[in-house]
Amino acid sequence: MQLAGTDLRLIRVFDAVVRHRGFPGAQVELNIGQSTISNHITALEQRLGLRLCRRGRAGFRLTDEGAEVHREVTAVLRGLEDFTANVAGLRNEMVGTLRIGLVDAIITDPNCPVAAAFSAFNRRQHAVRFEISEDVPQALQAKVAAGELDLAVGCYPTRIPGLRTIALYIEGNSLYCAAGHPLFTVPDAEIDPLALVRNRAAGRSYWRAGHSGNRTLLHTRAVAKTIEHQLILILTGDYIGYVPDHAARPYVEAGQLRALLPGEFHYPNELALALKDGPLANLAVGTFVDDLLACAGGAR
């Protein structure tokens, strides 16, 4: 099948429907009606000779062939964007889409250089569109390796092949409990460390077995995907848990949280930049990486 201009329109509509897992979200993004989207999907199916999805009252669902076609569509669309960005780079122009992944709850850390990097980049002449997404560290690494993200900032104690990481800054984490917890009013001098680790704890679902939160706390009874949701659990007064100090600070200042034996139950967490091995995709990616590292006090 040779791609024509109309085919690109059809596959962009198909991509939007898949990303939004149905027609409603795609309608908003594309600013076209449901019947038009349906006609485009039907036209693409006829063009390919494949059934791409099932749609109706039961909802939207990709067929196996549709899932495979979408993987190819993603590669085609990304290739077109890379072509545009690379050609612009030959003219020393920065265009295209820059996809950046971040772990949650980093904006409250005064050491985090991400916001400063955006400011530095935006002082340059460019026509780049940013797409920022949030995910857990393992998923961020996988997306960078697969080319779904250009770069990602997170904590990567376990690294996957095909990636390189560059340290950015250190984040402090301490063990906290909330007002209402039995330990909240107990002086540190009266807290038994051996008894402390037996308290019911709230952790994070992506922590591996060797993480401090799993290694030192013996009774993790709840897990959350994000720090914000973990804080919700700890603020009930029913759990203790390791939380970044910068994320806990507003609640400490409001008298809602306290650190427990911070001299003993504390660990540093390295936040790093994850990039795909090899040359950077285009001028925009390279420039943003340089700005990020400069704001972090490092160099590529």
Strand content: 15-25%
Number of helices: 11
Extract low-pLDDT stretches: none
Q: What summary fits the major beta sheet?
A: 7 strands, mixed
The CATH topology name of the largest domain reads D-Maltodextrin-Binding Protein, domain 2
CATH architecture title of the largest domain? 3-Layer(aba) Sandwich
Task: Count the E strands.
Answer: 11
Question: What's the overall average pLDDT, rounded?
Answer: 88
By secondary-structure content and strand pairing, the structural class works out as alpha/beta
CA(first)-CA(last) distance: 42 Å
What is the CATH domain class of the largest domain?
Alpha Beta
- What best-fitting shape do the alpha-carbon axes yield? globular
Order of helices and strands: HHHEEHEHEHEEHEHEHEHEEH
Radius of gyration based on Cα positions: 24 Å
Task: Indicate the percent of residues in helices.
Answer: 40-55%
Domain module count? 2
Question: What would you say this structure looks like, in words?
Answer:
The chain is of the alpha/beta class. The chain has 2 domains: 5-80, Winged helix-like DNA-binding domain superfamily/Winged helix DNA-binding domain (Arc Repressor Mutant, subunit A), CATH 1.10.10; 94-300, 3-Layer(aba) Sandwich (D-Maltodextrin-Binding Protein, domain 2). The chain contains 11 helices and 11 strands. Helix 1 (5-19) crosses helix 2 (23-30) and helix 1 (5-19) crosses helix 3 (34-48). The mean pLDDT is 88. Keywords: DNA-binding, Transcription, Transcription regulation. Belongs to the LysR transcriptional regulatory family. One of its GO terms (molecular function) is DNA-binding transcription factor activity.
